[in-house]
Design brief:
The complex is a heterodimer of chains A (409) and B (617). Chain A is of the alpha/beta class. In chain A, 39% of the residues lie in helices and 19% in strands. Chain A has helices at residues 62-82, 105-119, 138-147, 161-166, 175-185, 203-215, 233-239, 248-264, 284-290, 317-325, 339-350, 364-375, 381-385, 393-397, 399-406; strands at residues 30-36, 90-97, 121-131, 151-157, 189-196, 220-225, 268-271, 274-276, 294-298, 303-306, 309-313, 331-336, 357-358, 388-389. The longest helix of chain A is centred in the N-terminal third of the chain and has 21 residues, at 62-82. The two termini of chain A are 28 Å apart. Chain B is of the alpha+beta class and 617 residues long. Chain B has 13 helices and 31 strands. In chain B, β25 and β26 form a beta hairpin. The two termini of chain B are 40 Å apart. Classes of the chains: A alpha/beta (409), B alpha+beta (617).
Chain lengths: 409, 617
């Protein structure tokens, strides 16, 4: 989650949603995202909403943070009910950050318990936490498993020390296999996050990282091209010429290598940057974002989406805690998506998925563009013939260009 | 002696013996407008409280750029030895593109003040205008201005002026328009040295038009100098070149605000209003006579303005086309030299091919269109008018490379100019090198003084319309100055170079060049475009070609990655807004076949790197 909030409409203090947010809600999954805005150190490439101080004061300190999230879950339940939304059990829960595992496992467990007692869990609910390889122990992972977590996603990023150094990652690479093993022992499904295209990373470095990650036998891998965000330390180091700039062609080569090696190892892409060992190993929480489901985002800076209304909380933990302490919604702003906006988002997000976009959901402009996209090798012809727009490997690398061609001018 | 005349002579009843008609020949920045301001104040023509800097320069753009585009005449009262005189100061355009208008202003005068900055010396155009004045037998009063400046070198430049006009350095007046020093003495000298106008008061009326200006409220205001006879209000006048007749609704003098009079007599200078709405009905250089008692012969010297430089003007936003059309129509009311016709470019859409007197005329017109009508314009590379003879002996005029005929060409003639360059002598080598590169032929060289030289070249006009002046300035560290005039045409070995993007010809980038320079143009333009056009989803070859023969080639590699790696819950709004922005950006792209070319690429490719101020001189 990038730290800069969008510009939107003011959000009401009571958090109430417009009446049509409830339309069709019964047919949509309902999910929860919990943002944990703390890290041991801030990495040079990261522009997420996260803080390294342990003591931000009031309900914003790490100690008191779980209490503020519990308050927001309570608010969320009241808001959804008062806005006419039906009671729906949580299909998925995702703890992201920041570094969620920087909080005591017991805090994460108590938040999850509160969510379960408030909304209940669907029978096969998926519950994930992000984790740093060096912020877990066999004990903490067991506590999480016992509380209902099913999945852990480790920020491995790279197996190559000089690459980790440019990213300011502090964990020792050898901690990763250990953490993966502990998670397996605790009965958790394991995903690894990787970053490619870091300045100074060679294609061989990336091959090493992929091979190393695969040797740990993960159920799922997310591989992200490094994005240089404005205002980060890495951006200013590049500007000053201290590290070389990133290069799109290098990213393309590395993406192709990832696809090749991950596929050879038996993983399958299901979204542009995500590969799973079996369909059941795909991250259903993230799929919910791409399929336009409803989710409540708790925590400072977190975004929520319910039936075409999207809102985002104030960014800093202190005013976040203050609003909840005073019984107000911590939302900083919101947008009510028009039918056109929802169409744009639908095309933009679903085209990233292996399952693709149903051709009949496209407007005539979109349908007319498909033939050209096939001719340019961006869209799979067989899938298109079967009524879905599915990207080829070439198309995945140019997905944003495909989206622009599918949408009306 | 009391300089300000107690009783000013009355227009229409002024004895020619007490009239003095003069103009000021000066280079831009040499202080002509400031000197005129002082004269207006000193003679009481403008009250102190109404005074503003550069009073006579009416358009904002004139004040800002410090150049006078249109001339005007002011009648100033001045007394010498107890006699009140009427002095007519005729302002002349001070830049290279308006030589003909300058010549008409000079023809309306008996004398000229040669005004030169005492810190800079004479410049090429001033010299050209001085020669023009001497050819017209004008009495020249040499004056050094800005003598209050610490950098002034009055002795050096007085000697230069004296040698140019054949006098003594002591005869050169030294003034400061800024402080007013020496201006009274100058006024006295005008009265004493300049001849009074002569003419036949009983002959049929003949008056020469030296300027005509469109005024929103009054229609065309025509400035004339009466040579013979008399013009009176309410009579019918006739333009001798067109035989068109008009009623004289108003006649008067500018002092400097318009003041109606009972008419204008021999030697007098003033304005006419007939109610016409277009300056083309009141042409500079034409002779006005009385319809009932017409003169047998015109005063002569009339020429139609001839556009020399052509450029396509296109609105960046295609929906602005009607605004541009209306703006050009209004501009031509006041600018007889401006010609235009609609033109379509595959790359740029709908626009106009516009003919100008020169590059400065183009720059000023474009800047005014953008400013006064809030337009964003692309102007294509300036072209000259080629005369192409086909093998079947048909000839056609080509002002746009896209009209250049394919094959079967017998010969091509291109317009030539004779150029005069003045510069410190240390730069002679650099200037000759530049002119040689531009296919110039040396006509001669003279030393104006020990260290200043006048170099004359005959050059193809096409070689000086793009970046010649910039290069001249940079090669002479800013000291070089240029004047040029049309000088016939010549047969040249010219070819058209086309630029192709992915095999599609982009008309806006085609150029007509000398065969020996075609390769350099092709390499330059393909290289520029490779930098300016963003990578596309496919490889884009860029080629330069003469006919079917490729002479240069570059290619833009295909973009390989255009996807945001992460797009989760908190990224969606930002991503959607980015997408909308990209879509909006795409609207500013011009499609060439399947290639998206940003507007900026057209602008950057069509402008030389230093083109912005090139025409200012």
């Amino acid at each position: 989650m990038p730290s800069a909030l969008p510009l939107g409409l003011p959000a009401p203090d009571d958090g109430l949603l417009p009446p049509d947010a409830a339309d069709g809600a019964d047919g949509r999954d309902f999910c929860l995202y919990v943002h944990i805005p703390f890290c041991a150190v801030r990495c040079g490439y990261c522009d997420f909403n996260t803080y390294t101080a342990t003591e931000l004061g009031g309900g914003a300190s790490q100690d008191a943070y779980a209490g503020s999230v519990l308050a927001e879950i309570g608010l969320g339940a009241r808001v959804l009910e008062s806005s006419g939304l039906p009671a729906r059990p949580l299909s998925t829960v995702f703890f992201g950050g920041g570094t969620p595992t920087l909080l005591p496992a017991e805090d994460l467990a108590s938040i999850l318990r509160a969510a379960r007692s408030t909304w209940g869990f669907a029978p096969d609910a998926e519950v994930t936490t992000e984790a740093n390889p060096d912020s877990v122990t066999p004990e903490s992972l067991r506590i999480l498993r016992d509380a209902g977590f099913t999945r852990v996603s480790f920020g491995m990023q790279s197996a190559v020390p000089h690459v980790l150094a440019v990213l300011d990652r502090t964990h020792a690479p050898e901690r990763v296999p250990q953490a993966v093993q502990w998670a397996r022992d605790a009965g958790l499904n394991v995903s690894l996050d990787l970053i490619y295209g870091t300045p100074g990373e060679s294609l061989e470095d990336w091959r090493t990282t992929l091979a190393t990650a695969l040797s740990y036998g993960p159920d799922h891998i997310s591989a992200y091209a490094l994005i240089i965000e404005d205002g980060t330390r890495l951006a200013s180091r590049i500007r000053r010429g201290q590290v070389p700039p990133i290069d799109d062609d290098d990213h393309a080569d590395k993406y192709a290598l990832a696809e090749e090696m991950l596929t050879a190892d038996g993983l399958h892409w299901y979204e542009v940057s995500n590969w799973a060992r079996t369909p059941a190993d795909a991250c259903r929480h993230n799929l919910a974002y791409w399929r336009g489901s409803d989710w409540w985002g708790a925590g400072p800076g977190a975004h929520s989406h319910v039936g075409g209304t999207r809102w985002w909380n104030v960014k800093h933990p202190r005013p976040y805690a203050d609003a909840l302490g005073a019984g107000r919604s911590p939302a900083a702003g919101r947008e009510i998506l028009s039918a056109g906006d929802r169409y744009v988002e639908d095309v933009m997000l679903r085209v990233r998925l292996r399952e693709g976009l149903p051709t009949q959901s496209l407007t005539s402009t979109g349908r007319r563009a498909v033939a050209g996209l096939i001719a340019d090798g961006l869209v799979d012809p067989a899938a298109a013939f079967a009524g879905r727009v599915v990207l080829t490997l070439h198309g995945r690398l140019l997905a944003d260009a495909v989206v622009r061609r599918l949408l009306p001018d | 002696m009391s300089p300000m005349a107690r009783t000013a002579p009355v227009p229409a009843a002024t004895d020619p013996a007490i009239i003095r008609n003069f103009c000021i020949i000066a280079h831009i920045d040499h202080g002509k407008s400031t000197l005129a301001d002082r004269m207006l104040q000193l003679t009481g023509a403008v009250e102190q409280r109404d005074m503003k800097a550069q009073y006579l320069d009416r358009m904002d753009i004139e004040r800002e750029r410090g150049i006078t585009i249109k001339s005007q005449a002011v009648r100033l009262p001045w007394e010498v030895d107890g006699t009140a005189y009427a002095l007519n100061m005729i302002d002349t355009p001070g830049h290279v593109d308006f030589t003909y208008e300058v010549s008409r202003s000079l023809a309306a005068c008996e004398g000229a003040i040669l005004l030169v900055d005492a810190a800079q010396g004479i410049e090429a155009q001033t010299l050209a205008n001085l020669y023009l004045a001497m050819e017209n037998n004008l009495t020249i009063i040499p004056v050094l201005n800005k003598i209050d400046l610490p950098a002034a070198q009055p002795e050096k430049y007085a000697a230069e002026l004296a040698s140019l006009i054949g006098g003594e350095p002591e005869d050169v007046l030294k003034v400061s328009g800024k402080t007013g020093m020496g201006v009274e003495a100058l006024m006295d000298k005008i009265v004493r040295d300049l001849p009074a106008p002569t003419g036949n008061p009983d002959a049929p009326a003949r008056a020469m038009i030296f300027d005509s200006v469109y005024d929103t409220y009054r229609g065309v205001v025509t400035y004339v100098r009466v040579v013979d006879g008399k013009l009176s209000p309410r009579e019918r006048i006739q333009m001798m070149s067109t035989r068109a007749s008009h009623e004289l609704l108003e006649i008067g003098v500018s002092s400097p605000e318009p003041k109606p009079s009972k008419g204008l007599g021999v030697g007098e200078v003033g304005y006419l209003i007939t109610g016409v709405k277009d300056v083309r009905q009141s042409k500079v250089g034409d002779t006005v006579t009385n319809l009932a008692k017409p003169a047998a012969e015109s005063l002569g010297g009339y020429q139609d303005p001839k556009p020399m430089v052509f450029s396509g003007l296109y609105p960046l936003d295609g929906t602005d086309y009607p605004v541009l059309r209306d703006a050009l129509a209004k501009f031509t009311l006041n600018d007889a030299a401006l010609v235009y016709e609609p033109e379509t470019s595959a790359a740029l859409g709908f626009g106009f091919r516009v003919g100008f007197l020169g590059l400065l005329h183009l720059e000023i017109t474009r800047e005014r269109l953008e400013r006064e009508y809030n337009l964003d314009l692309i102007s294509t590379a300036p072209n000259v008018e080629y005369e192409v003879t086909l093998e079947d002996r048909r000839t056609l005029k080509v002002t746009n490379p896209s009209e250049y005929p394919v094959g079967k060409i017998a010969e091509v003639r291109e317009p030539m100019v004779s150029a005069t360059i003045l510069a410190p002598s240390e730069f002679v080598g650099a200037i000759m090198e530049l002119c040689q590169q531009r296919r110039g032929v040396l006509g001669g060289m003279d030393y104006l003084s020990e260290d200043r030289v006048e170099i004359r070249y005959r050059l193809p006009l096409a070689e000086i319309v793009f970046d010649f002046f910039d290069l001249l300035k940079s090669k002479t560290r800013g000291y070089g100055s240029l004047d040029w005039k049309a000088d016939g045409d010549q047969v040249s070995d010219l070819v058209k170079v086309d630029i192709l993007l992915q095999g599609e010809q982009v008309d806006a980038f085609s150029a007509i060049t000398h065969r020996e320079k075609a390769y350099a143009y092709g390499v330059m333009m393909t290289g520029k475009l490779r930098e300016l056009i963003p990578r596309q989803q496919f490889e884009v070859p860029i080629q330069a070609a003469i006919g079917a023969r490729i002479i240069a080639r570059e290619s833009i590699r295909a973009i390989r990655k255009d996807v945001l790696a992460k797009c989760y819950g908190g990224d969606i709004t930002r991503k959607r807004k980015l997408l909308e922005k990209q879509k909006e950006g795409k609207k500013r792209m011009k499609m060439v076949g399947r290639v998206e070319v940003p507007q900026e690429a057209f602008i950057a490719a069509l402008s030389s790197d230093e083109s912005k101020d090139k025409a200012k001189k």
